[in-house]
User: Fold this.
Amino acid sequence: MSKKDFKKSAAYMESVPKMKKIMRNYYLKAKYARYLGRKVAWITSGGPVEPLIAMGIIPVYPENHGAMIGVSRTGVKLCEVAEGMGYSTDLCSYARADIGCSAAGGGPIGGLPKPDMLICCNNICGTVLKWYEIQARKFRVPLFIFDTPFVHTEFTKEAKTYVDRQVEDYIRFLETVMKKKFPRDKMNVVGKRSVEAMRLWQQVLDTATAKPAPLTAFDAFFHLALIVTLRGTRTVLRYYRFLLDELNRRVENGIGMVKTEQYRFLWDNLPIWHRMRWLSRTFAARNAALVADTYTSAWCGTVDHIDENDFLGSMGEAYTRIYLNIGVDKMAEKVLNMIDKYEVDGLVMHSNRSCKPYSFGQYDIRRIVQEKRGLPVLILESDMVDARKFSEAQAETRIDAFMEMVGQK
Amino acid sequence: MNSTEIIEKFRTAARDPFHCVRSLKKEKHCPVVGYTCTYFPEEIVLAAEAHPLRLFGESGMVLKADAHIQAYGCSLARSVFEDALSGQLDFLDVMAFPHSCDTMQRLSDIWRLNIKNTVHLDLLFPVHLKSEAAGDYLKAVLERFKKELEQALQTEISGSALSGAISLTNRIRSALHSLYRIRAAAPERISGSDLNRVVRGCMILDRSTAADLLETLADELGSVNFPAGKQPVKRLLLSGGACLHPDIHDIIEQQGGAVVWDDLCTGNRYFDTPVPDGPSPVSAIAERFLDRAVCPAKHSGIDRRGKELSELVSKYEINGVIFLLLKFCDPHGFDYPDLKATLEEAGVPSLFLEVESGKPVDGPTRTRVETFLQILNQQEPMT
Amino acid sequence: MICCGIDIGSVTAKGVLLEESKQIAGAIRFTGYNAGNAAETILQSLLEQAGLKQEQVDAIVATGYGRNSVNFADKALSEIICHAAGAHFAVPAARTVIDIGGQDSKIIRLKENGQVTDFVMNDKCAAGTGRFLEVMARALGTDLDGFGQLSLKSRTPAAISSTCTVFAESEVISLVAKGEKRENIIAGIHASIAARTVALANRVGVVPAVAMTGGVSRNIGVVRALEKHLNLPVIIPENAQLTGAVGAALLAQKGK
Assistant:
């Protein structure tokens, strides 16, 4: 397809080049932060970024970088560097790729800018704690740990006190590192923007309730980058408003991302970054659209717990209650809600060797979905970055068998 | 009782912990509380006149658990759950999950959804141990556990019962420490595999029985005159999670080595640091958790584990370190490369081993151990 | 002094007799299911070749997986120590030895005097070993001997990314189905083994000169791929398969 033809096709979205430009500028700014007199903080994907934005610190996300490494298929090489250092191939491939990249350079953007501080929030996994300890030893920069107790069944009173106290510790940490006062009034503005960004992001994802869906999970994985990295800034609001407009126009005009959308599926777990195109084509060729996913909605799932007039006072709880930090039964409930909301015909689960908190429990969620909704469930074994742990042939066979089951319904 | 008879008691317990605890329950009519990590307040359970049992996973073959946890879950989690699903743990009254790693965290959920005949308790410990907020939170978590256990067992835990339980567990810690010191001074007095079983036995046997046995054993082994003039051995340290492979010690000892100290949750991390005297028993228990040798799933500063390991190495004159890690154990896997580098800087050779619980030490692992010892032996001037 | 080294591997059993540093007999056979018998047969064949009686042999060292089943040996030493000694004898300049055998691969680092300073072995998975190559050769309908030569013809090696033997096999089959040239697939397999081996080697560090021993060293395709990934020449000692047995015999001498 020529560039001209592609621009006319249903797959083309004006937002995409816009987004690429924003991300390019963001990484450019981060890489030259030092020359701009700005400080860089590395922060985990589920970490509380808003205070950094309020403080004028540039946040950098090794996990987002990991995703880019995955998409650019440079993951195996970087993982091998880490393995040469003694890191087992069973460890998280984001961490391995990042450790490899910090040691040897390389990757799609030639490595991340060196951090001035590290902000680690363990609401997504215990792996980030180990990973950030390693980087703190390597770079010898201050490390702040935001410790969010797991919510198996309830968010306890003492956990609430604990996370609230850590918000204050966090502010003090930033004040010490930056040697300046934390701007509380600026924080209010950033907090409000962050809440608005989460709401907009939810609306973006909600457009996929339309049939045919104007975007698929593969598109959401792409547009997600901003809500992860830059929430709390004006750029994000402008962009998601633009994206939402475009999606709404597509809905009005009945334009689906998968032209022949006949089956609608829900995706669970992180994307298989190194096989995005292959997977989207494989499903599209079978008239199937992955219309929603549990992953991208994690960045707006707790918006109801935030008081936008008291962001700092409520963010501890909101960050503790995120999707990956709750019990398997609560996750299953959310999956069931999404199944109903997006009216899907089946569930596709990525059993991700790199993400144990996301993957362990999937078998029970599958059982619950089968019992309560009678839907077929497909489990694909892979890894988000490490392409050595995936077999196209095996996956294709499973997808075909799954499609037969879906077709029989 | 002589030392051989005492050791035999621990061997029996380690060989069939479930049988041992079933009989104990029958005899004493005490409720049994299962748990999965050394960050667990055994004292609170003992004060409730219940019996704490550390689970290590006895099922070698994982069949039923395979339908709940993927194959890339560690063998410890998978086999512990296999034990539960196959009904071997039906004598448990309470199952408690102290927060440790990602896998155990999810295992708790999966357990709660599938095992219905026990009271299920989570201890949501902080991961960060070095902040004031975390210390206060830890105390609150212990208070909650105490309350929940009282409810589950329909009992009340008195302050004096708690103090009594603390002195009992401190007796066990102190006696284990003495045994380790004896082994460090004269490794031939008790084999590594037996000492491993003794430590594990302490997490299985009735605790006051265990304390008595340990004290007698330490007295006997400490006083008996053994023939002097033994050949010098290569002094090794084992580092890792739970060591469920006593046979690794036999291979080491056959090659003229001996593990004289360890950094394991079936060893040093279990008995390190007594519960101090404190304003209240619960905060004293919390103090110990904040101070004791740290597990890699917790944070106590970025250099703490490396420092602790180096200290043990110099204190016990260690010639080589063996990292004994469970396959798929993330917290230990992430710590290993930097720990190895720390040892290298100090000129201490190390060996990396990956094992699975429930499976015997295999040929390639044996080869690795033998080679490592043969390398250490080569370094001596040839005679 | 006459010394004997017996190396009972997972696939083949090997043995040599050394008179001082001269090899006076050598033998190879399949191990089969009884390692003890294999060792006995090897010993008899060595004695026959050299025209000696067992009493005339001063010391015997056994090595390899079956080392503990060799009843007549004076001592059992691990194959890593023996391979190192054998490789040092054949290639005195070697500071790194890559040994890829039937069921495992190892990287050994040596001092100038041939002493082992560090080593690393592959994890439990079979990928990257002789066994892996066998499975792949079967999937491609060729034998192991043709495998190495064939791959040298390839200009554009296929990308084989999976490290799991089962996954890699299905990858190979789907490449075959897509009509990919056989030499490219084989070259891809070799490249993936080389990448994996080098990643393993980096754990102990690679210092030249690099020697390679073990059965897979006979596969020229793997050797070339390793050289490319290491950016270093790889030296294959003569009779590379016997390296472990030679090392065992040398260590038997030393022990006397």
Observations:
- Chain B has a mean pLDDT of 94.
